[in-house]
Design brief:
CATH architecture: 3-Layer(aba) Sandwich
Structural class: alpha/beta
Distance between the termini: 40 Å
Radius of gyration: 17 Å
Number of helices: 9
Order of helices and strands: EEEHEHEEEHEHEHHEHEEEHH
Largest sheet: 9 strands, mixed
Number of domains: 1
Shape: globular
Length: about 280
Amino acid sequence: MAVTGPATIGDNCVDRYLPPIGRDRAGGNALNVAAGLAAAGLPTAYVGAIGDDADGRLILAEGGAMGIDMSRVVVAPGHTGVTTITVTPDGERIFESEVLGTSGTFRPSAEATGFLATRSWVHATGPGHIVEALEAVAAAGVRVSYDVSHPPRIERFAALGPMLEVAFLSAAGAGAADGADLAREAIRRGARSAVVGRGKDGCLMLSGDRLYEQPALPARVVDTLGAGDALIAGVIAALLDGASPDAALIQGAHAAAAACTHIGAWRPPEPLEAHG
């Protein structure tokens, strides 16, 4: 079967901005990365679950408007996940509450797993049963990455590490040495390379035994939400194009800076009507 473009699997949510912004936007790590890959011109698919509600319809509409293949999104009983957000005057996003919704219990079907096994790259995040599906995807020779940003997910490295082309981690506010130690731990557990986002302090990548560092690029910061996911998408898109690790970090840094210049993790190309 011919190999196609990348895909992402895992969480989605509606990012609900509280007043004075008062706006709903599609988001969630896996969907944000899919949007970034699609914006880079890659034929990208997203696999996940939404509820049968207005929030789920917003997810489908905004994802489709970005050109993401949303045909394997499952409409499940229950509610779509919602994250409520405020933004400080300097553009820093603050998560006020988070409800996972149907994304939290999503289990990919055998058909979805088989579909992912035909892709050129699969980026994932989310519950442990998604990790189980990745084993079959990696066994098919697909390049796999996973966002291991949250501490509970680090415990999954025993199963994840050997199948990962890239482990993506977050260490905002940590020093460069601590970030490098985090990357080395990912390599020690089997990942072929590791990228650590450090927020306003930039990012780094450990590939083999060589460490690459990239400072954050200047940006007119409106909202930092999604900058880390944009970094992931930029790095993956560059690596798929055959870029070196340092060039991939530069492309990721540009994507992260651009994500900070608008409300929401990403913007559909055309304004959308409300989906009530």
